[in-house]
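W.,

You were right to be curious about this one. When I first looked at the sequence I had no strong expectations either way, so I just let the prediction run and decided to look at it fresh. Below is the sequence, 173 residues in total, followed by the output.
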Amino acid sequence: MSMNIVLMQPEIPQNTGNIARTCAATGTVLHLIEPLGFSLADKYLKRAGLDYWHLMEYHVYRSAEEFWKQHPGIRAHFATTKAPRGYHEAEYRDGDYLFFGCETRGLPENLLEKVYDRCIRIPMRAEARSLNLANSAAVVLYEALRQNGFPGLSAEGQLTGRVEPEGAWLDYV
């Protein structure tokens, strides 16, 4: 199974780096639609994604038109604060594309008008403008993965046996 995250004209390298790291950890494909507000060689982008770039697949498109020509007929969900329903109400399937807009404007309204029945929203207080892009992408992606049983992902961890220094804080647990 593979999910897809599409970032339309992302502006902040740290957000894209964090999303890349989430994609690497989940086997999700990242699609970046230009113009980008940074260079893919940007040190902040690499720092945020740390050393995870080699673990993920990503594609860059010169425009939204190029993306749509390469991916006709896809099943997509569009994350926006203007959506009529919550992200948790959508049904996600293998291969779905999760769209997110740039940090300052979100997805273009002329796009949202055409796909309004596929728009999703993360519930939040009315006074809040929006959530951080990287956080939003993680929230929606993990719901999609949860609905599909977290395919290929490990749900169990284990202690390493590393020796830690004693700390006063241990008295409180």
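Here's what jumped out at me. Residues 4-155 form a domain with the Alpha/beta knot fold (CATH 3.40.1280.10). And, maybe more interesting for your project: The longest helix spans residues 133-147.

Coffee later to discuss?

I.
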